[in-house]
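Researcher: Can you fold this with iron/sulfur cluster in place?
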Amino acid sequence: MDTLAVAQKSLDRKGFLDLDVDPTLDLFEEIKKLKREKNAIILAHYYQEPDIQDIADYIGDSLGLSQKAESTDADIIVFAGVHFMAETAKMLNPQKKVLLPDLKAGCSLADSAPAPLFRKFKEKYPDHVVVSYINCTAELKTMTDVCCTSTNAVHIIDSIPEDQPIIFAPDKNLGAYLQRKTGREMVIWNGSCMVHEIFSDEKITKLLQRHPSAKFIAHPECEAHILEKADHIASTTGLLNFTRDDEATEFVVATESGIIHQMQKASPHKTFIPAPPDNTCACNECPHMRRNTLEKLYLCMKHEQPEIHLDQWVIDEGRACIDRMLEVSARAGL
Ligand code: 13P
Ligand code: SF4
């Protein structure tokens, strides 16, 4: 068996190409070379490790990444993020090759709404429209009327006629936040993100007492009792912009700590403290996002593997809810 055939076997098992990378290689230079040779674009989420953010062509939140995936004229989209994001890119631009450095980079929130269970749940509410957070599987999107991200969620809910009942899936924390923000009662699926639901109220209170001039900022995937304390609630891009524009010089940040890399770059004179989680480990890193590494990114670009494949029916039936989301976002100037 040749090297790539061996690697393919390991890919089937492990979800990434398990090949040795020459430790003397300058991976930044090699990746840049591959980008040029293959006309590839690297799209990275803010929760990726700093090296990956630094080599990416575009870094953004879920909305920005979807818009970029739709508009790119590159031949290959290398998605440095998690599986549902790469699937969304494939749905938006099905003729492109979409690569994900590690196929097992999943998402606890997307996993919390398995399509067969959701189908049964939806049957109980035949007159409801389904709004799904983009952090869901491609199959769930086939059962969704309109998608949203944390940037446009309020606009999406507001775009639905007031007398139209809504199911919101899969994030119960974002759903509850939207109910409070828009005043709309919704039927909410009971899912959550493993990173955003572990912040410790008590530890954050103590931290803020020690840093009285710090502003506390949080992502709407956090639980209500954490959001209550926040000076500002927004998507990752919204939080980043807030730290850049606000006069405060110290921020306690309740979201995945990868975003702090961009916050620090945008405001080098400011201090960013990751909000402490409610466990013995002191980090807020998403174990799914962090499966991607610079080595896996390099190998996946070199061998054009692992690739995202979707059944044609999933693309056909799942795309409309993303298109609707992008239309509402464009009308709102997002
Ligand atoms: P945004 O970057 O769109 O705010 O989403 C956060 C997130 O949890 C992505 O997995
Ligand atoms: Fe999913 Fe949460 Fe990780 Fe985002 S941070 S990919 S929502 S598990």
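Model: Folded with iron/sulfur cluster in place. The longest helix spans residues 312-331.
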